[in-house]
Amino acid sequence: MDNPDASSDTSNPGGIFGKFRRSLETTARDPVSRTQLIKFCFVGILNTIVGYGAFFILVNYLYYLLALALAHIIGVIHSYLWNKYWIFRSGRTSLAEFVKFNVVYVFVFAANAVALYICVDLLSVDPRIAQLLILPVITVISFSGQKLWTFGAGRREH
User: Fold this and answer.
1) What distance, in Å, lies between the first and last C-alpha atoms of the chain?
2) Residue 87 pLDDT more than 50?
3) Beta carbons of 87 and 80 less than 8 angstroms apart
4) What pTM, to 2 d.p., does this model score?
């Protein structure tokens, strides 16, 4: 029970934060990880344009949370293709990988929806502005989940 290496164990509450910290350190030192981060940011900008553009159009015709859901689905499909084939170069066909990718995005969607609800319904912020303000936080959550869990922090680019 007294394991000195317990902080590196992901079942330990501090373990996931240790893994996240080590991943950030690796990203700073490792050229492959730096390239992945640069690509992720580029795709993130592109995906933001696609997702926010869809939201901006849909919110004019649909209830704002329904517009968010549809825009999110569009963004997830767009993002999965770029992440799988260009950023992390995962050549395997894996249902588990696809499920993990979507689990991360369900979490991202839930966090986004709660934050958007708070901004719009409780703070009376225009949903277009609120969503734009929320995006940077959602991006960090998404990158961390995809790099550390879906595609694996140790996987190397080909």
Assistant:
1) 40
2) yes
3) no
4) 0.63
